[in-house]
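Postdoc handover notes: sequence design on the structure in folder B. Input C-alpha cells:
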C-alpha cells in the first residue's frame, strides 16, 4: 500500500530526476508542471479540458479562496475537490506569497501577518496555524507552510531574521498538522534571498522538521536570470535526495528545464495561462504573438508539431481574429494550447530522463527560445 508523501526515485540523468509522488488523490509523475487555478479554476478551462490534456495536479490558493468564497463554505461542500469537481491531486499555496506580493498594507509579527482584503479592504490575520486550518478546510493533497517571501534587494540582516522566522512558522505548521494526518502532506519552503549561505541556513533548519517535501521560494521576484540560476544550482543539490523538490512560481520553458537540470521535481507558474490571455503563445519554434498583422491570413496551425485541440482544429488567422475581437473562445483556445505545450514539454522531459537524453532535449528548447 502506498501512503501519501511516498516518493519513489526511478532514475536520474545528471542531476535530473524521474520519480513518482503519492498523494491521497493518486500518484503524480515527476518532473511535473502544475497549472495554476488560483480561484479554484484554471482560468477559461473546465476540469474536462485539464483531464484531456493530462494535467496530473493543479494549484489552488489559500489567500484567494479564504477571502472568497471562504474556506468554511468550501469545507461544507466537501472540500475543494468536490466543490470544483476535480478528482486528481491539488496543491495549495499558503497565502504567504500572495499577502506579501499583492499587499502594500500589511503588518508582520512573530505571531503572523495582518493584511487587507483586495476585494473589500477588510482586515484579516494569518497565523501559521490559520494558514494550515484553511488548507485543511480546502482539503488539498499538498499543503504549503506559511512563509515570508522577502522582496528582491532585501539586505542580509533583514533576510536572515526573516528566514529564521519562516523556520519558526514552519515548525508551528508541522506541529499543528503532524505527519500522516488525514492524508494531507506538507512541504517546507526554503527562503534566504540571494545569499547562498543564508539559503543553506534556511535549508539546514527546515530539514530538521519532518516535512514530506521541500520547496524553494523567494525566486523570480525581480532578479536577473543569472542570479536565479546561481541560487537554484547552489541550493537544489543540497536538498534531501529522497524527498520531492518544488520550485515555486517558475517560470519560462527554459527556466523549468534549468530547474530540472538542477534536480527540481515540481513547478508552477501563471506564465502559460496568463500569457495565453494576452495572446503570447509558446510553440516548438519559440514564442508567437498571435495579434501580429502577419497572421491575418495565415491558414497554418499555430504549432504544426503540437497535438492539442487548438492546433489540430484552428488556423492562426482564426486565432488572431478571436484575439482581436476579444472573443471568449480566444482565452480558452489559447490557454488550452499553452498549458498543453507546458505539459507536453514535461512529458518529453520525463521520457528523456528515462532514456538518458535530457541534455539533448534541453539544448533543443534552448535553440528554439534562444532570442528571449
Ligand atoms: N510562490 C512563488 N514564490 C513563493 C514563495 O516564496 N512563497 C510562497 N508561499 N509561494 C510562492
Ligand atoms: Zn497546440
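Designed sequence:
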Amino acid at each position: 500500500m502506498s501512503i501519501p508523501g511516498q516518493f519513489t526515485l526511478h532514475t536520474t540523468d545528471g542531476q535530473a530526476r524521474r520519480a513518482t509522488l503519492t498523494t491521497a488523490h493518486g500518484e503524480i509523475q515527476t518532473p511535473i508542471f502544475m497549472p495554476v487555478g488560483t480561484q479554484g479554476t484554471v482560468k477559461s478551462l473546465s476540469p474536462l479540458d485539464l483531464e484531456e490534456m493530462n494535467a496530473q495536479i493543479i494549484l489552488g490558493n489559500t489567500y484567494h479562496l479564504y477571502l472568497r468564497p471562504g474556506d468554511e463554505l468550501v469545507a461544507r461542500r466537501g472540500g475543494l475537490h468536490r466543490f470544483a469537481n476535480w478528482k486528481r491531486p491539488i496543491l495549495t499555496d499558503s497565502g504567504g506569497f500572495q499577502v506579501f506580493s499583492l499587499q502594500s498594507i500589511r503588518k508582520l509579527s512573530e505571531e503572523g501577518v495582518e493584511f487587507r482584503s483586495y476585494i473589500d479592504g477588510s482586515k484579516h490575520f494569518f497565523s501559521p496555524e490559520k494558514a494550515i486550518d484553511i488548507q485543511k478546510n480546502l482539503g488539498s493533497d499538498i499543503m504549503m507552510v506559511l512563509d515570508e517571501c522577502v522582496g528582491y534587494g532585501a539586505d542580509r540582516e533583514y533576510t536572515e531574521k526573516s528566514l529564521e522566522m519562516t523556520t519558526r512558522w514552519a515548525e508551528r505548521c508541522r506541529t499543528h498538522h503532524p505527519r500522516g494526518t488525514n492524508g494531507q502532506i506538507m512541504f517546507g519552503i526554503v527562503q534566504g534571498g540571494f545569499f547562498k549561505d543564508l539559503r543553506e541556513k534556511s535549508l539546514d533548519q527546515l530539514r530538521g522538521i519532518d516535512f514530506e517535501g521541500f520547496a524553494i521560494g523567494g525566486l523570480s521576484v525581480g532578479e536577473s536570470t543569472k542570479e536565479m540560476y546561481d541560487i537554484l544550482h547552489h541550493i537544489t543539490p543540497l536538498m534531501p535526495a529522497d524527498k520531492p523538490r518544488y520550485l515555486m512560481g517558475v517560470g519560462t520553458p527554459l527556466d523549468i528545464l534549468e530547474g530540472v537540470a538542477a534536480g527540481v521535481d515540481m513547478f508552477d507558474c501563471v506564465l502559460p495561462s496568463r500569457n495565453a490571455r494576452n495572446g503570447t503563445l509558446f510553440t516548438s519554434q519559440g514564442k508567437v504573438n498571435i495579434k501580429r498583422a502577419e497572421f491575418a491570413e495565415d491558414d497554418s496551425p499555430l504549432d504544426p508539431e503540437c497535438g492539442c485541440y487548438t492546433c489540430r482544429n484552428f488556423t492562426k488567422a482564426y486565432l488572431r481574429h478571436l484575439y482581436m475581437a476579444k472573443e471568449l473562445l480566444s482565452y480558452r483556445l489559447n490557454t488550452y494550447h499553452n498549458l498543453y505545450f507546458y505539459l507536453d514539454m514535461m512529458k518529453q522531459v520525463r521520457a528523456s530522463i528515462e532514456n538518458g537524453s535530457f541534455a539533448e532535449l534541453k539544448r533543443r528548447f534552448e535553440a528554439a527560445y534562444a532570442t528571449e
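Context for whoever picks this up: The longest helix spans residues 328-354. Don't rerun without checking with the PI first.
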